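Dear all,

This email documents one entry for the complex benchmark we are building for the journal club exercise. For each entry we list the sequence lines for every component of the assembly. Then comes the predicted three-dimensional structure of the complex as a token string, followed by one or two observations. Please use this as the template for your own entries, and keep the labels exactly as they appear.
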Amino acid sequence: MKITGVELRRIAMPLVAPFRTSFGTETTREVLLVRVVTADAEGWGECVAMAEPRYSSEYADGAADVLRRFLIPVLPGQADAQAAGRAMEPFKGHRMAKAALETAVLDAQLRARGESFGSFLGASRDRVPCGVSVGIMDSVPELLDAVTGYVEEGYLRIKLKIEPGWDLAPVRAVRERFGEDLLLQVDANAAYTLADAHHLARLDEFGLLLVEQPLADDDLVQHARLAKLMRTPICLDESIESAAHAAAAISLGACSIVNVKPGRVGGYLEARRIHELCRAHGVAVWCGGMLETGLGRAANVALAALPGFILPGDTSGSGRYYATDITPPFVLDDGHLPVPAGAGLGVDPVPEILREVTVSAEWIAL
Ligand code: SMG
Ligand code: MG
């Protein structure tokens, strides 16, 4: 494939409501989009790095810099996305930047040959069940209103963000209001330490599907200890940046479920490897989210249609995030989103909308 150039485009997308987690509050999603242009087609990749390095060490300006200086320059001469991914390997880390570029190359490659992401990745379904991630709120009544709205929209699973001081009471209130049949889980974004094990074990009485990333990103050993001290299954998010990390976590007993986020692990090819590894070990996976626009969502929904993705993902409809998405919106139908069937991502940005939200654009000719 002959890549003629790459565009780095920054957009700013106001969220419909602030999203608060244990590490900060998002009100506008600043996104870096990567567009790869080849002789036959063009492809898009959405970088999931946030504006500030709070979820992980990566951030949007840093991703743009490493793409510009080191990653985009390796593209000439690469035959396909797999080769491009291998060529980026000598540069350490920066997985979100790598994922965005590899995804854009893969999209261009698949569009050129008329194959969808779902078909390429090995999707076994044409729609996926969806959950929603609910931020930390100022009060329990406010949280119950928000959850009521999502349940009425048809979301099949609710995830509550927790932190010290906002855990047992909100979880208890949601469980009491919606009953034991509601699929419910929590996400701490690394806000606790092993010294909180006794407190965290009190979550066991609420019949949660899982507790996501309770402890520090780099602490598999302590997660393994915590797993022995509570009944609720431990799911890792931030800790898993590659298939090798997933293998280590599984063999240590640090988790029994994995949140797969393609951006966090360096792309959809590595995400698929993690899916295969987990499936071979009987470890459930589900697809996480990073407040993606329709471009990132399209690829995530395709990934979530693989057979090992047995739990509903954080693949919510566009309206949960944005009043106007940059693609035609993903709309929940009976709690599910359809897997795009068109070539590549199967969705395109709407030019006028993309123009309106664009902050800057830079063309790098190759
Ligand atoms: O895309 O619906 C979404 C967000 C899901 O909670 C979500 N993501 O740790 O899983 C997580 C967070 C990370 C991003 S929070 C700004
Ligand atoms: Mg998480």
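Observations: The pocket of magnesium ion (ligand 2) is lined by residues 187, 189, 212-213, 237, 259, 288 (CB under 6 Å). The CA atoms of residues 14 and 28 lie 4 Å apart.
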